[in-house]
Amino acid sequence: MRDKFKIKSVYTMLMVILMGFVLVESNYWYLLSILVCSSDTRYVIWGTLIILTVIAQKLKIRKTYIFVPWLFYIAMILFRNQEFAHGRYSNTERLILCITMVFVCAYKSDWVKKIPKMIVAIGIPNVIATLVFLVNDSLYKVFISRTYGEYQSGTEYGKYGYRAALADHYSQNATYISMVVLALFVLFLTEERRKKKFFWGVLLGASVIALLLTSKRAHLLFCVAAAIIVYYLAYPQKRLEKTFKLVIAGAVIAFGLALVSEYIPQINNVFERFQTAGTDKETLGRFIMWNYAFELFKQNPLFGTGWWGFRYSGITNIRADALTGCHNVYIEILSNCGIVGFVIFIIALISALYITMKNIKFCIDNELESYKMVVLCSAVIQAFCLMYCMTGNVMFDRTFHFYIIAVVMSVSFYLNKENIAYMEEEKKDYV
């Protein structure tokens, strides 16, 4: 019995370390490459942690239909992989490492309760840096001189350095802050203790201001939409009452932002950018890439050009920023993998959403308040990522790391939910 407990404790510790490592790698990957170690070294550490978790669960991988879509997902990535064809491997290796975590998460689930707070703790330096660099531009200049050596994209050659803060691109900074905002929203929503709720609320307010300062309209829009969706999922009863509260909260937030903008006028930039949506150069550039991707899809509609095919197709001769992707995951998957790959992709996404919805209902029905935070955090991140897929490169860049962590949390809970409910009931009886 003691040996079994020891094995489970080691497994729990390893899963926490693995999730923490991936979160650090996700938030600060470019800085890590400059200051600490290369991608190859980090991926070796990552793979080693995954292997150790398998050893901790006695070299057993749970047999479940939930894993099937992700096995096909890996096959889709490897089939006619254009990164391999061009002598490279790093991005493919990274994505496969992400997906592999799904297969090692099912042995035990007590670790999942730590993840929402870990997302906040590891990502909050991005919020702090954004606010600090707004106040102290000279500190930003020192940071740049000692790290990147050049101003990041989106900062207009350092004029708005706070937009990118610690990240290599202002869009990446907005993504990292969005994850913190979403996790804090769930922590605030589910917290019952007043002091803790106030603490989460203060952090949430600061993080929302930081998100506004990045001037990224898509991130703001999708954060709001994801939060509203999860708010209704969390409280399915009395929807009319909840809608009224939501409207009141929206009015209070709008009033608060109006006051804050008097002291921090830079947050108005994001709202000004909404006025140019559809006509600015960023949007027009996306239209060019989407049309190009559709043309590639027509050339091979069944299987596509192969994973990463869009980026190696010559599009960069037309749009240099296409190197990072099509800026619409759904269209790029069609281009890369054709109808067959697109179906695999959609099945994987829907399967993850399905078990997440089941988890939320299970937590509500069984009054598992301590785990409700976990499943709602998973849901809000998945909702954000699936919406952001329409304008970003979620399934190809580091945003995928956050998405897969959300999936892993959901899968782990789902496969152990009956045991979780039993243990929670035992605790109630004991008390």
Architecture overview:
The chain crosses the membrane at residues 12-31, 43-59, 118-135, 173-190, 197-213, 219-234, 246-264, 333-354, 374-394, 400-416. InterPro entries: O-antigen_ligase-rel_domated, WaaL-like. One of its GO terms (molecular function) is ligase activity. Residues 204-346 form the O-antigen ligase-related domain. By secondary structure, this protein is mostly helical. It is 72% helix and 0% strand. The chain is built from 16 helices and no strands. The protein has helices at residues 2-35, 39-56, 68-78, 82-85, 90-103, 115-135, 137-146, 170-190, 194-213, 217-234, 239-263, 268-274, 281-299, 329-365, 369-388, 399-430. The longest helix has 37 residues, at 329-365.
